[in-house]
Amino acid sequence: MPAIDPVQQQELQRLIQRLINLTTPNYTRLDINSRQQGRANRSLPVLLAPWEQDAPCPEEAFYALTKDLAANGVCVLLHHPVHHDQFLLAFWDHGPLYALAEVRHLEHLGGPFWQMGLELLGRLHPADLPGREQLEPKVRYLRPRRIGVSLPTLP
After folding, report:
1. What DSSP element (H or E) covers 68?
2. What is the CATH number of the domain that holds 75?
3. What pLDDT digit, counting tens, does each position of 49-86 carry?
4. Is 56 among the domain residues?
């Protein structure tokens, strides 16, 4: 292992601190003054399916990661831009949770990454969900697993 130069180590720490300061938690240029609720930084996997004509589009569903959560909204990190106004949003919490969400903002972060702010409009019950059979295997993939347990293949 090469010797670590304290000056280089301090320089690296300054650069990392600058990155931390640039990526202040919960900061969004679009709505920093309009939030009525606090956000909690949480990284959770979610499944998003575009919602069109009162039904989800399971064949267009994709996974994302939450950046932060609030009682009435969520911000997700994406690896591509989206062009839909509403989504079925699925979480896993001792079982699947489904919600209808409306896009409030979409912002390019750089590279292939985007963040999308969603307003949660209401919970959807699985029994009333069209296309549930196609979504269930994808939603089950959100379930956390223990280390050492083999993971299923991606649906």
Report:
1. strand 62-70
2. 2.40.10.220
3. 999 999 999 999 999 999 988 888 899 999 999 999 99
4. yes
